[in-house]
Amino acid sequence: MREKIKKLKGNKLVKDYSVTLLFSGLNAVVSFGLFKLVFNEFGEDEFYRFSMLKRLLGFLLPVSLLGLAVSLSKSVSKDVLNKKRHSTLLMASLILGFGLPLLSLFLYLFAPSFVSQLFWSSSSTEDIKLSFSLIFYIFSLVIGTLTYSVFRGQMKFLQASILEFFNLSIFPILGFLFASDLFQFILYMSTGVFVLNILLFFILLFKHQPNLSQIKPNSSELISFGLPRLPGDFAFYFLLALPAIIGIRIYSGEVAGVISFGISLLALTQVVLQPVGVISLTRAVHLIHSEQLPQLKKETFGTLKIMLGFSFLLLIAEFLFLDIFIELFFDSNFLKHGFIFRTMILAIPSLTVFYSLRGVIDAYYHKPIVGNISLVSILFFGLCVGPIYFFELDLVYFLISFVLSLFLLSILCFFYTRKIFSQEAK
């Protein structure tokens, strides 16, 4: 038994998972706490806006990144020791990644009411200001995600985890302490994230100066892998944002805010399970290039079993103690929305499968398989929503359709992962 413990302690993979899991858990706790703080300090209306903002961010950030987070990590991990190339890749990715946020800012400067209407279905002064803070936050997280992806590709998971902890926990806490409303909170938080990551960006560039003549070919490499995945990323995050977007139009702003918070519960589950996705891509690239498919199969399905067991325990705990959680973090008025939360958290196991297998699929297939799977799932959800809207069916049918679309996503991911190893066995 002692020998096994010693082996585990010396196992780099176990250390990487442990460190990333620790910081991901801390990020999850802070994220939960922020919902409570926003509700208590800024009021119920601002809480609904904050929930919607988190859903919009979850949709807009991946679209802005053009698939660069995955392609940058993959390109770096293929040549781990070439730090000069890493700097070149980082500069190329930043040039590409700033395109959509700059376009959004340009559009906001000339038509702020139009942008606000797109985001919030409202053009009030408060919503116009909040739209600016959202765009600035996207700017900050683009550079933060790309810097994080370099550390991830270099297999420096401790540095990557610390950076993410500052971006997702430290700066939100500091921003909240100095803010008097939601707009200031997002603005101060964004400023902290932007300053830290722009400093890290320049440190990495000056430490290992990029080869400017290689910017164009490196950009082509990143785009050739990342861009075909953009429709899929768009579809997946749009799938997560769609219930709130439709909810605000079919039902009400209150229902949309509650649905957004329900999706945030699922997203926080992702934060806890993130170590699998963070490490699996880099690890899979290494094992595929060294032709160690049997070892990859063992690690992939072994990890999946553990994470599924954990997700079922999490699901049971959330299901049983949801009312206590609601009263602790909000107030008894929210108990009337309990059925929404309980229905939505049924998707936890399906998201666990998706996040556990996504990295392996991305590492093995050059085609955007995950993107195609996501598009199929969003099409399924859209086909379900049509009759629900036309026949004015109850909200529960809408929520069940969303959960089933996520289960379809996980089933297809499992199918393609099995296909990888069945092909190699022939």
Describe the protein in words.
This protein has 426 residues and is mainly alpha-helical. The protein has one domain (2-425). 87% of the residues lie in helices and 0% in strands. It has 18 helices and no strands. The chain has helices spanning 2-10, 12-42, 44-65, 68-78, 83-97, 99-110, 112-120, 125-153, 157-178, 182-207, 215-226, 230-250, 253-289, 293-329, 338-344, 348-364, 369-390, 395-425. The radius of gyration is 21 Å and the shape is globular. The two termini are 37 Å apart.
The computed structural class is mainly alpha
Query: How much is the average pLDDT?
Result: 81
Order of helices and strands: HHHHHHHHHHHHHHHHHH
**Unreliable runs, pLDDT <50, ≥5 residues?**
none
Strand content: under 5%
Count helical runs.
Answer: 18
Largest sheet properties: none
Tally of discrete structural domains: 1
Measured on Cα atoms, how large is the radius of gyration?
21 Å
Straight-line N-to-C gap: 37 Å
Q: Tell me how many strands there are.
A: 0
Helical residue percent? over 70%
Q: Any idea what the shape is?
A: globular
Set down the secondary structure blueprint:
Elements: H1 2-10, H2 12-42, H3 44-65, H4 68-78, H5 83-97, H6 99-110, H7 112-120, H8 125-153, H9 157-178, H10 182-207, H11 215-226, H12 230-250, H13 253-289, H14 293-329, H15 338-344, H16 348-364, H17 369-390, H18 395-425
Task: Give a brief rundown of this model.
With 426 residues, the protein is mostly helical.
Keywords:
18 helices, 426 residues
